[in-house]
Each structure stands twice: as C-alpha cells, then as structure tokens.
Specification:
By secondary structure, the protein is of the alpha/beta class. It folds into 2 domains: about 55 residues; about 200 residues, Vaccinia Virus protein VP39 (Rossmann fold, 3-Layer(aba) Sandwich), CATH 3.40.50. It contains 9 helices and 10 strands. The strands form 2 sheets. Strands 3, 4, 5, 6, 7, 8, 9 and 10 form an 8-stranded mixed β-sheet that branches. Strands 1-2 form a two-stranded antiparallel sheet. A hairpin with a 2-residue loop joins strand 1 and strand 2. Helix 1 packs across helix 2. The longest helix is centred in the N-terminal third of the chain and has 43 residues. The termini are far apart.
C-alpha cells in the first residue's frame, strides 16, 4: 500500500511539471502579444497617417481617384445656358422695334466686311442678319447661314427668295457641329446666339476650324453688366465672361464696340500662326540674330 502512494505522487508531480512549462510559455506569449499591441498603438498615436496608410495597404484597398470638377447640367463655367429660341417664336426676330434696339446696319458697318468675302451667320434664324450680310459681300461673296432648326432654315430660304438674294447658302447645323467648310470662312457672326449653345467648346472648335488664318469670330451679346437691359439674365453675358470662355479655345481678343444701346460687339481672331508654331519661329529668329 505504501509503495503505491509514492508512485501516485510521482505521477501527479510529473503531470504538474509537464503542465507548468506550458503554462509559463502561455504567460510569456501573452506578455509578448500585449507588448507588441502596446507598441503598435503607440506608433499609431505618434504617426496616425502612416498607420492608416499601412492598414489600407494590408487590406488591399486603393484610394479612389479624384473626380474632375464638371459643370452642373445646363451650365457652363458658372453661367446658365439659355434655352434655344424655338422657330414658333420667329416673329420676335423680325419685330418692328429691333431696328432701333439693335441697329444691325451700324453693327455691320463696324465690322467692315469686304466685298467678295465668305461669311457665316451662325444661328441665322429667319435670316434677319444674313440678308444684310449678303448685300455687303455682293454677288462674288457668300453667306453661309446655319441653324439647328430646319423650320428656321425654310423661313430663311423663303425670305431670301422674296428679297431676290441668291448668295445665301442655308446649312443645317447640330448642337456640336456648325457644319461649316474647314478653313474657308473670313468672318463668323453670332448675333444673340452664343449664350444658347449647349456645347460651347465643341461649337467653338468647329468655328475655329472653319475660319481662315486671321479670320474673325464676332459675338453680339446683350450686356450682362447692365441690369437695365430688359432681357432675362441667362440671355446676357458680361465682357469678362465672354473672354473667359472664348480665348481658351484658341482665339485671340481683337477689339470691342459698345456703341449699341444694349449689346456688346466683341471681336476675336483666329491666329494666323498657331501658338506653338509662333513660339518656334520666334526662338529660331532669336537664335539667328545671335
């Protein structure tokens, strides 16, 4: 009986001895984990940006690309785009008071359109300005009259026949393409039209292509600076806004006339030499002088 007791005792002791090292190892592992966690927290507190970055890298999450700021629908560069005037309101284009309000002959006088020129009346409507331009360019010249509404062009063609004018060519344009022949136009005129363009940049690029080098783009717009001009704000433009929109599209400001009662006449030019080519030539000239 005695001999059994020591054996049992040794068995218990051996079991305790085998368990105790494992327990010690468990305590050591736990201590190490706590120490590592504490170090991680400290690093995160000292450098939160780095910790956040590392966490994202570990999770495989990529930062979303920054979106390019775009204009809200129906606006361009902070300006509300006006609704296009419907052909159903065409009578307003030939109202009796327009001659006094807009002085179309004085406006064309200021532009000094040469006989024999190829000119474009963009957004021509029923031809109120096209007919006047046709007389100025003469039989050797040509007026390209564009509009996006076929009904307007039908009325324009009828008015030209009635007036006996044969040097106007009606052209059906689109909201993104003026449909003008490339490099053939001396002057493009937009009377109370540009502010209605739903795709200004595409339109301006098409107009620029149509102009000859040195050709002119003329915008006639109601003055946005003048609150007394009796028309809705979206149908007006300030001089500063016009320049801000037109010049980045490859045009150079040339001159401005403000003698009309309510409107600006703003003239831009397509450079005779592309900017990059002009810089190249200037550099070559300077080198030759040296």
């Amino acid at each position: 009986m005695r001999s059994a007791a020591p054996a049992g005792h040794r068995a218990g002791d051996d079991a305790k001895e085998s368990v105790m090292p494992r327990a010690r190892m468990g305590f050591v592992s736990l201590a190490l984990l706590l120490a590592l966690y504490g170090r991680s927290v400290a690093q995160e507190a000292s450098d939160p940006a780095k910790a956040k970055s590392e966490a994202k890298a570990k999770s495989g999450t990529k930062k979303a690309p920054r979106r390019t700021q775009r204009d809200a629908p129906g606006t361009y560069m902070g300006r509300r785009i006006a609704d296009v005037m419907s052909y159903q309101g065409a009578e307003w284009l030939i109202r009796a008071s327009r001659e006094e309000e807009e002085q179309p002959e004085a406006m064309l006088d200021a532009l000094k359109i040469a006989p024999g020129s190829t000119v474009a009346d963009v957004g021509a409507g029923v031809g109120y300005t096209s007919l006047r331009m046709a007389r100025r360019v003469g039989p050797e010249g040509l007026v390209l009259a564009t509009d996006i509404q076929p009904q307007m062009l039908q009325m324009l063609a009828g008015n030209a026949r009635t007036a006996g004018v044969e040097n106007i060519r009606p052209i059906r344009s689109t909201i993104t393409d003026p449909k003008l022949p490339e490099g053939e136009v001396d002057l493009i005129l937009m009377v109370d039209v540009y502010h209605e363009c739903t795709h200004p940049e595409a339109t301006l690029q098409g107009l620029r292509k149509a102009l000859k080098p040195g050709g002119r783009l003329v915008l006639v717009e109601f003055r946005g600076e003048d609150p007394e001009v009796p028309i809705k704000p979206e149908h007006k433009m300030t001089f500063a806004q016009v320049r801000r929109e037109i010049e980045p599209q490859g045009f150079t400001f040339k001159e401005k006339f403000d003698f009309l009662p309510w409107q600006h006449i703003i003239v831009f030019e397509k450079p005779a030499t592309p900017p990059a080519e002009a810089t190249k030539r200037a550099a070559a000239k300077a080198k030759a002088v040296e």
